[in-house]
Amino acid sequence: MKSRIKRLSLIFGLCSAIIVCPAILDSVAKAQEQSACPSGQIRDLNGLCISTSQGQESESMANAQEFFQRGREFDVKGQHQEALVEYTRAIELDPNYVEAYFYRGNALALEGQPQKGIEDLQKAAAILESRGQLEWAAAMRQQEEIIQEGIQDGEF
Q: What is the pTM (predicted TM-score) of this model?
């Protein structure tokens, strides 16, 4: 079991560096390309400026990225439960946040909830497929298979 978890952690780290980091940079670049909304408005999921119900800025994509980054910091320290909370907040703010699904899925698997982890990886893969990013989607599917093997081997 320890070898499978070490393998999962190693692959998780490699996928993070090779697959997810470019996606994060792409997300940041896209966010920077968008112009700011006027005061009292926020950007919806389609990129349109809409008024907030109380005229105040609500949590935006930037905040989703902040939650995600805090989750990564917790993950690096091995504090997976805390990381899960932050990833979930990021996903609540941006339901298409692939990186947050990826990391939450792996953290769930490491915390003994591999089936929920698989569901997050499937969601990430589906989002990537819908964007035409098939190579990254395949990497999500591969990570899903590794967790599935761990379940079958009784390691989770």
A: 0.65
